[in-house]
Amino acid sequence: MSGISTDPIAVWQRVAGKWQIPALILSVLLLATAVAHVKSPQRKISVAQHIETIEKLIHGGMYVPAIDRTEMLLGWKDVSPADRARLRLLRARAESGEMARIDDRSKAAAGSIIDFYDKAQSEGALLTAPDHARIAASYEALGQYRVAVRQYELAQKAAEPPALSYRRRVIELSEYPLREPPETIDGLVESYIADAKDDPRELIWALAKRVETVATEDGWSAAADFLAQYEDQFESGPLAEEYSYLTALALWGSERYDLAERELRELLNGVAVSDPVYSRAGWLLGKVVMYDGRAQRPEEALAIFRDVIASRVDPVYIVASRIGMGEALTYLQRYDESLGAYKQAIDDLQSVRPNEHANPEVIRTSLTVAADRCRHEDLTDTALEYMRLATSLVADENVDLLTQYLQRLGDLQAAVARECVKKADALEKEDETQRSELLVRARSLFDEAGETLARIARINTLNESLSADAMWAAAGLFDEGGDYERTIEVLQAFVRDRPDADVIPRLLLRLGQSLQALGRYEEAIDAYQRNYARYPRSPQANASLIPLAECYMALGGDSENLAERALLEVVQDSEIFTPEAPEYRDAMFLLGDLHHRRGEYEKAIPILDEALEKYSDDRRVPKAMFLAADAYRQSAMAIKDELLQPEFVGERKRMRAERINRLHEAADRFLALVKLLESRDKATLSEANRMYLQDARLYEAACLFELDQYTEALALYERAAWIYKDSPVALGAYVQVINCLVFLGREDDARAALRRAQYLVDRMPAEAFTSGGRFDSRANWKRYFDWVGEILVEQ
User: Fold this and answer.
1) How far apart, in whole angstroms, are the C-alpha atoms of residue 543 and residue 548?
2) 263 near 282, Cβ under 8 Å?
3) Rounded Cα gap, residues 745 and 64, in angstroms
4) What predicted TM-score, i.e. pTM, was given to this entire model?
5) pLDDT of 705-756, one tens digit each?
6) d(CA 189, CA 171)
7) pLDDT tens across 653-675, in order?
8) Label partner for 447 (CA 20 to 30 A): which of 102, 342, 487, 594?
């Protein structure tokens, strides 16, 4: 054994002539000797011999040992520049071969191959045609198609003419995805046809491209005329079926559907399922059946597309047929299956080189049509699913197109969310579980829609107006879904990142409103103040004054002084707002409210009266009427207290007269409010207006009671007790009924009223006692009326 050489080259030479040794054994021998030398490098073997071994390893498909040996040699210091360049090139070829062997089509792998070839070229290596082709394929994987075309053109120059395989790929890439003008592709195809005249299979491929190019330029009838020139060459022989398919394609394109269908059916009947022509002809027949200008036959088309897919022959037409299936299933309203077909087509694209029939754009366009069809038929939820898939197929670098699709996706997400809310609102209380599920989905969809619009803002940073509008819309959608925290987050980010944008006043206003909605009043005040201080002449900054005042009012205490100052900025000092402005109207109502809550009734009354006179159609009229009436009542009660003070002895006569006038005014105003609200449909009254009506009834009676008009007050209290008989409000009214009867000297009637009140306490539903006030339980009310009974007995 010691006399046998372990030099891999010697081994190769000894076995190379033994043609009867199987290739597998040869590979194993070569691998074993290569591994031995990698593990224990023999420096007595020359670099040239090592290079020869590496070349044979690569030729035998053993790329990893080739890579290892190349790395070893590149680490040697005495390798000549020429040999080092050669080793770099071999390393690139080995890496490329290994990536292809393990089917690694990742961008990382492609970038690695390009880097290896770049290093080889930088050290002076001369690339062959296959080398340029490998680089081109790597650039394709990176989506750099123009660079790929240049590499294929270099491969063409380095190869022996006519180099059809490289020229073919240039034509395919020029057609898709580069979308070169038809005349450019036509020139490439014409040249290809001229050089492929002695290669029928390449020629028939070129004729197919020429048919499509001619059809694009001059119409499909010209394509039929062009094909006729080759009828003698292809109507019989091994490529007759290919020619027949092209004939059918031209017939279909020229809208001679019956002839195209007949040609395709005859072709399919005579060709094996395993023949690639079967896939193309089947796909085209499915298209003819679906879109022949007459009543569509989706069921039949579906069966044809399934047959093509089952053939498992041509991946391109399998993808194209899955797209056709998706369209046919959409027409059949089998939407889940349709979406499944489209998803499978998208998955299959991973194993297909993009071309004019199977590429993301074709699938996206088909999905968009399906989405539009569903939207037109009010199937918004289904349309949304199609649009999700369509949007996923738009490349990030195509900002304009992506913006369009994101906008459509966001619109659909919001539309479905609003449909969920509408359905939830229409459900009865007993369907609370379903209602809750609908509202949860609505909130989720509003969030999705907001994120979709926020993405539009992010990808359009160079278009300030579009970005700002999208961010504004996103904030609105987050608001609509109740996700105020996300609203605040996106607005704060935009304001922080683009402080000088023209839309900042509008965004600061929205930011303040969102913070205010969450009760974060100090932060909201900061946003409003920043807005007004930085942009004092901006309408949005001035619009911040009203919510700024609301925040101060919510904080209460000394902050109410600041609220008043903000409101006076609108109604007294503003150069922007006139009485016709909504902000002026808001300020008037708020200022009246503020004075009332602070007990400044003398200030509140004229402001509220002015607001009622100017804005009689405002939804806040009932509240303003109530506050004005109550201001008269409260001021009258304040005078009553002052009458007991010794310092007002000399003014008592005038004060009593003023008190009586104010009580009458209050009673009249409460009555006017009662009439206004009673004239409206009870079912449409808001909860707030129901409370104003209830309190106005009771306060009108209270004013008459204070005026010693007990008979009139009694009638009002008894009516209130009847109207609110299922509420503790009725029990309070009965207290005053008893008081009125006592003051009228009708003790027996007072005792009878007491018995009615006690009966009412017993029969009132338990859920009525939930006010949380002093009389928050049935027992407390019973004890109170028992005490009243004891007083009446004593009397």
Assistant:
1) 9
2) no
3) 115
4) 0.72
5) 999 999 999 999 999 999 999 888 999 999 999 999 999 999 999 999 999 9
6) 7
7) 899 999 999 999 999 999 999 99
8) 342
